[in-house]
Amino acid sequence: MARIALEGVTKVFGHEVIAVNDVSIEIGDGEFMVLVGPSGCGKSTILRLLSGLDEVTDGEIWIGDKQVTDLPAKERDLAMIFQNYAIYPHMTVAQNIGFGLKLRRTKKTTIQERVLEVAQMLGLQEMLDRKPATLSGGQRQRVAIGRAIVRDPVAFLMDEPLSNLDAKLRVQMRAELARIHARLSRTTVYVTHDQVEAMTLGDRVAVLKDGVLQQLASPQEVFRQPANLFVAAFIGSPPMNLVEAKVGDGDISFADYRLPLPSGTDLSEYRNRSVILGIRPSDLEDADVWTGENRPVIEANVEIVEDLGTEMNVIFSINAPPVVTEQTQAAEEDASTETGIPLIASEGTNTFTARVDPRCRARSGSRVRLSVDPDRFHFFDPETSTAVLSKHPAGLAS
Ligand code: ATP
Q1: Kindly report the CA angle at 296 between 293 and 301, in degrees rounded to 5?
Q2: Cα torsion for 326, 331, 334, 339, to the nearest 10°?
Q3: How is residue 240 annotated by DSSP?
Q4: pLDDT digit string (tens) for 231-288?
Q5: Would the CB of 43 count as within 6 Å of ligand 1?
Q6: Are 377 and 257 within 8 A, CB to CB?
Q7: Atom 15 of ligand 1 has which residue's CA nearest to it?
Q8: Ligand 1 in reach of 109 Cβ (< 6 A)
Q9: For residue 343, what pLDDT is reported?
Q10: What tens digit of pLDDT does each residue of 297-320 get?
């Protein structure tokens, strides 16, 4: 077991492509760290630098108490798991799992014992004599995981290991990885562009954009206190609703609405100016269903209703332009498509989503009254895109 640290790591390809830009991340012993971000943000490169498959341009890499920056891959004792399972088609499941041990000239009986132990952990004990061609995608990926586990490496590096699986299997394997991690408590660095995986698997999440670390925090913190507009727009599904709003004296207005400012937030610096206001879809509720304390209400015309059974997405347009910045665009490129939220915003229209109780009676074309909680509002500086800190961080109340 080992902690892993990147200290000021930069990777430049050729003369121009700064794939990783001065990134420092310390991963605790036994921690599950997820690197997440849109395509091209540098997450796979970080993994390759950690593994020793690529060399850093600048900075240091530490594993345990050892600086390994210049150490070749095979001396780092890390196991990598990729999306393409990389198992040998001519070998049986048992041979595949035990291959790494065989290379290390481990005793035959020890190999057999370890292979069986790992196969049991992964539910592969009935398939040990089968060839990969006779296995499902999920089973194959389990073999690849088994091959990594059996060696007992100091840490696992996983690069989108579930992305080749269909949606149902992905959810199943996600739970399985969480279970394996709970059992082995091995330091794990996990790369994904899927923010649901990031949120569900990570002890902490490192959000990257253009090779630069945007935020490093627990999934809850990244969701509840995104450090900037990019993180706000990237993490969360459906994504956070964003609109430019004008700060008044104790209130804030956007589109056709004027709402009280949250109690603990000091926005005096922005009075009579604009901020970017962010409201999570889950922080809007059908006012007719809401039974909690009195809250302000906004009314809107419903465009589309998506009934997901346990909850409902009410999509409505508001009378304000969309927030389009370099950060929101970067986040949108990879916006989670899993939920099926249609990107219906046409030029000049800002589309909001409310994730409400399924008892909501809103229908396409009807009006909806939505209860809002200003204490859960997020604010971002329109110039810098960074979060405007509040005295009582939004969303920490419950
Ligand atoms: P994806 O999710 O698409 O795999 P990523 O976040 O893992 O993306 P990287 O593969 O780390 O991103 O790439 C980061 C940047 O570095 C990209 O701009 C990519 O084009 C560039 N890059 C990666 N490998 C090389 C290479 N060998 N030579 C030149 N440029 C590279």
Answers
A1: 125
A2: -140
A3: P
A4: 999 999 899 999 999 999 889 999 999 999 988 778 889 999 999 999 999 999 999 9
A5: yes
A6: no
A7: 19
A8: no
A9: 44
A10: 999 999 999 999 999 999 999 998
